Amino acid sequence: MADDLLQRKYTLRFHQLDASGDGVLSRADLAALAQRVIATAGEAPTSAKAEAVRRADDGYWQAVAALAGVGEDGRISLEQFVDALSAANDQHRLMDFAAPAITAHAALADRNGDGVVDLQEYRSVYTGLGADDATIEASFRQLDVNGDGVVTLDEWLASATDFYTSTDPHAPGNLILGQF
Question: What is the CATH number of domain 4-170?
Fold first, then answer.
């Protein structure tokens, strides 16, 4: 079972991924969420960036489903999700499937292709996750470790790694997805 801090973070993530709001995760939830993020980012649904997000999010689903012991078309409860992420973290494999999704979302957010994401670009993706402006701005400040007003992929990945793996209550990435 996950440490209490990790359990709270994984619970937040579960509820963000539960696009249908029915209290269980399914492949359809992650697909719907990917489509919503792509749309709010203003990306063409047939673009390479949109396909990369769909593919990476599906890979995330497949990994979690396998860890939870359900088929790819199964349903995952909150407890199964927390246990699956905990097992992946204990095995030092969690970022193996989380990092590709994060990378795809960061590329989607980088609307002008300059290799960094500013607050407006970040907002375009996180609005699709259902985050409000205050959460988006606080999260962006957490990501922008050096305070230069933009987020690099390395900063995004480091913060996401904190979120998914750190048991330190003061880790900078803890609030990347909002308050838990």
Answer: 1.10.238.10
